[in-house]
UniProtKB/TrEMBL annotation:
Organism phylogeny: Eukaryota, Fungi, Dikarya, Ascomycota, Pezizomycotina
Domain Transcription factor IIIC 90kDa subunit N-terminal: from-to ranges: 19-494
The name this protein goes by in its record: Transcription factor IIIC 90kDa subunit N-terminal domain-containing protein
A Pfam family that the UniProt record links to this protein: zf-TFIIIC
One GO MF term: histone acetyltransferase activity
Region spans: Disordered: 740-767
GO process terms (BP): transcription initiation at RNA polymerase III promoter
Gene Ontology annotations for the cellular component aspect, listed alphabetically: transcription factor TFIIIC complex
Length: 795
């Protein structure tokens, strides 16, 4: 369909791709991780007949560590040493994006596992399109170091104590990891009124790890962003761990070194299903992993007691053994999304039959019944399955794709669920594309039939309508001489449905917190790939066919609007944030309309104006909040006054359309600000802009409708470009918006009561320290994305 990028690097390992819910693609490539960031805005000077680039390529070097991050360590004994920890080049082995919500402005962060068995979390501290802004925020191994006890020193140890000391190092080496889906727990605890948080709208973020000591660890990752400085405080808490029993005898020292390293038992291929609906105070997911003895499945249960999260396990474990000298390849969960919540685990067994690898489907009903297994030969002798991806066709059917490292051209596409594979399935488009690439490479290099393609990985887009592959081309049957500067990896985008058709999305797709950025990227990918024409008159109708019904039908499945939260009747600030978050989710259909009329369908990027229909709903919802919130700070009082003025302005415009000019009544809500430049009054004239009496013009905050009168105090939407005041300005220092006004000011004091602000003897307004849990804090916590299109903020 389309070649996204040509990377000047070689992956070096399979499972090298990861696709975030924001549409960002990460590629592990040796010393670096390369990020493909979607370009969501059209260029200001478009070239006729030329599409804007779909991606921007960033290179982040991940193999360099400070001594505080990875201390210098003396070699350990033969029983506990690690070749990766001691002498590796720290190449990236695996990357995976977190769910939305952890990063700045609620974006995803990137977890990177390097060959020295260190797991790092990377996040952007500014513009995500600048590689220098990506920093290592957390080294997860430090949490394991603090969790597992060890002796303070290894000097003057007996041999038994020395082994215990070295075992602590072994337990903090990370072998595999995976992110859990966001965990939404019922609001059952009483929150501290001084604490404002929106974890109810983004869920709890859990990380599942395995170490060198055959242990699986469940960790909670939190990023608390300081309102004043904007700097996050990262907290990694180990919630639970368990050991995986192994009947493999320890390897004898007289074996060859290769046999010793290959036969050491370990846990890998961690993958976890979606969380079930809350029942009996907990939610449940199926955790699958592999060891040298086979595939294991445990039921992971999560509950909350006051401020603590608790991890438990279900009564029924599942074990699927593998043959001796066999191995387990990629694994992934697929859920039918039916009412009985049947889950299918699809995994590959390597070289366990004369016909090569096998694909196994394990059906887990979730009610303790014996699982149902299905096995099929892949006929991939001397080849391995390098990835696993699911796709959605235009008729609503789901398929699983199993690419092999050495692409043989044989179809490895199966319908889901894997119960009957007798039906003929045509060659998928991605295999056709790879065959064309191989043919072109053979002609270019005069290799003829002596060429081959390696498929390093394959992943699906967040909506499941596109698949990306990482492919490299090489000579076959002859030696290949190359240097790093000549290495190339092609990232290709494929669709699994006929041209001119839009796939049918299941209603649950949007419930996974698919972002507006991802939807906009999908729209651009449709017309970039020729599925629809950008300037087709039916373009909007075509898109609505694919996504509108999905969003309309997704609300019962939305963890914010549906089963994930209990009803909220409390007036506590935290509960009010959850209530406003529900309201924000209900705006998603109106936001979708704005997405259709923004950058994806414009020839030139233009800043969007405020959608007055959405503004009316937001104003009404905020003004209905308890009045006590606006009596706690001066800024909250000013926000209420600006909302009342905006509501009156909108009502006056509506009356003007419905009535004769002579019947209009003047607004009873008067609100004004002072110009920071000339100290003249700014009356409320428009929702988008403000202007003082001497002509100084400013943009208004699209959420509070206050004037933005200074540089560096605002943020803007990454999609529509609307400007918002920054939290650090409105909340971080409440006195920044307090201006000295002369006595006799007619500005409205709507909602203001005694004790929050007073007049001094000189007639000037002074403020007292504000209380916690103000209206400003509540609305900024709830509306942490653009109200009008759902886009995330940038500064």
């Amino acid at each position: 369909m389309a070649q996204l990028a040509v990377l000047n690097a070689a992956p070096g390992t399979t499972r090298c791709l990861s696709w975030s819910n924001d549409g960002e693609l990460a590629v592990t490539a040796g010393e670096n991780v390369q990020l493909l960031i979607p370009n969501l805005r059209s260029s200001n000077q478009p070239v006729p007949g030329v599409h804007d680039p779909l991606w921007q390529n960033l290179v982040i070097r991940t193999n360099q560590f400070r001594e505080s991050e990875v201390p210098i360590q003396e070699p350990l004994s033969f029983q506990n040493w690690s070749i990766g920890e001691e002498i590796s080049d720290c190449h990236a082995l695996r990357t995976e994006w977190s769910p939305l919500g952890l990063g700045q402005y609620r974006r995803s962060v990137l977890a990177v596992l390097t060959s020295n068995q260190v797991l790092s979390i990377w996040a952007s501290t500014g513009s995500r399109n600048n590689a220098s802004n990506w920093k290592r925020m957390v080294v997860v191994n430090h949490a394991l170091k603090n969790y597992f006890p060890r002796s303070p020193s290894r000097e003057s140890f007996s041999s038994h104590e020395r082994i215990k000391f070295e075992l602590a190092f072994k337990r903090q080496r990370i072998r595999s990891f995976t992110w859990c889906k966001p965990a939404y727990l019922p609001l059952t605890r009483t929150y501290d009124p001084s604490t404002i948080s929106n974890d109810t709208s983004w869920g709890e973020n859990l990380l599942v790890l395995s170490n060198e000591n055959l242990e699986v660890i469940v960790a909670r990752v939190q990023a608390i962003h300081d309102i004043k400085s904007g700097e996050p405080t990262w907290i990694t808490t180990i919630l639970h761990h368990f050991s995986v029993a192994s009947n493999i005898e320890s390897t004898q020292k007289n074996l060859l070194f290769e046999d010793y390293t290959q036969n050491r038992p370990y846990v890998t291929n961690l993958t976890i299903s979606d969380w079930s609906a809350p029942k009996q105070g907990f939610i449940e997911a199926s955790l699958a992993f592999s060891s040298v003895e086979g595939v294991h499945i445990k039921k992971l249960r999560l509950s909350r007691n006051d401020s603590e999260l608790h991890v438990g396990f279900g009564p029924h474990d599942i074990h699927y053994p593998v043959q001796e000298f066999g191995g387990v390849g990629p694994m992934a969960w697929w859920q039918s999304r039916s009412e009985d919540e049947i889950r299918y685990l699809v995994f590959c067994l390597r070289e366990t039959s004369p016909n090569g690898d096998q694909v196994v489907s394990l059906c887990d009903t979730g009610d303790g019944d014996a699982p149902v297994f299905s096995r099929y030969d892949l006929h991939t002798m001397w080849n391995i399955v390098s990835g696993i991806a699911f796709s959605k066709s235009s008729d609503g059917r789901s398929y699983v794709h199993l690419p092999t490292l050495l692409d043989s051209g044989q179809c490895t596409k199966f319908p889901m669920p894997l119960l009957n594979t007798d039906n003929e399935i045509g060659t998928p488009e991605w295999q056709k594309t790879i065959a064309e690439m191989r043919t072109f490479y053979a002609e270019k290099t005069d290799l003829g039939e002596n060429s081959c393609a390696k498929v390093w990985d394959m992943v699906s887009s967040p909506l499941g309508d596109f698949q990306a592959t990482a492919v490299s081309l090489h000579p076959a049957k002859v030696l290949e001489y190359t240097i790093h500067a000549q290495e190339e990896t092609m990232i290709n985008l494929h669709k699994d449905f006929p041209s001119g058709e839009i796939p049918t999305y299941s209603p649950e797709m949007y419930s996974g917190r698919i972002s507006s950025e991802c939807i906009l990227f999908t729209i651009k990918a449709w017309w970039t790939g020729g599925i629809v024409t950008k300037h087709d008159k039916t373009f909007k109708a075509t898109i609505e066919k694919g996504l509108r019904e999905t969003i309309e039908n997704s609300q019962p499945c939305d963890p914010i609007l549906g089963r994930g939260l209990s009803s909220i009747t409390s007036d506590q600030p935290h509960h009010l944030v959850a209530a406003l978050s529900r309201f924000s989710h209900q705006l998603c259909l109106k936001q979708f309309d704005n997405l259709l009329s923004t950058q994806a369908v414009k020839k030139k990027w233009i800043r969007t104006t405020i959608d007055k229909a959405i503004a009316k709903l937001v104003i009404r919802e905020v003004l209905d909040l308890p009045s006590i919130l606006s009596q706690m700070s001066v800024n909250s009082t000013r926000i209420v006054a600006s909302y009342a003025a905006a509501q009156a302005k909108l009502q006056a415009e509506q009356d003007k359309e419905d009535s004769e000019p002579s019947t209009m009544q003047p607004s009873v809500h008067e609100f004004s600000e002072l110009c920071d430049i000339c100290n003249y009054r700014i009356v409320f004239e428009d929702l988008d802009w403000s202007k003082c009496a001497r002509g100084h013009k400013f943009a208004r905050c699209a959420l509070t409708f206050l004037s933005i009168q200074a540089p560096g105090i605002s943020k803007n939407c990454s999609i529509c470009g609307l400007q918002y005041l920054a939290e650090s300005f409105v909340i971080g220092d409440d006195s920044q918006l307090i201006t000295e006004e002369p006595a006799g000011n007619n500005a409205s004091n709507t909602g203001r009561e005694d004790g929050e602000a007073s007049k001094d003897t000189g007639g000037n307004m002074t403020d007292i320290p504000r209380k916690q849990g103000t209206l400003a804090e509540v609305i900024f916590a709830a509306f942490d994305a653009c109200v009008y299109c759902g886009g995330k903020f940038v500064r």
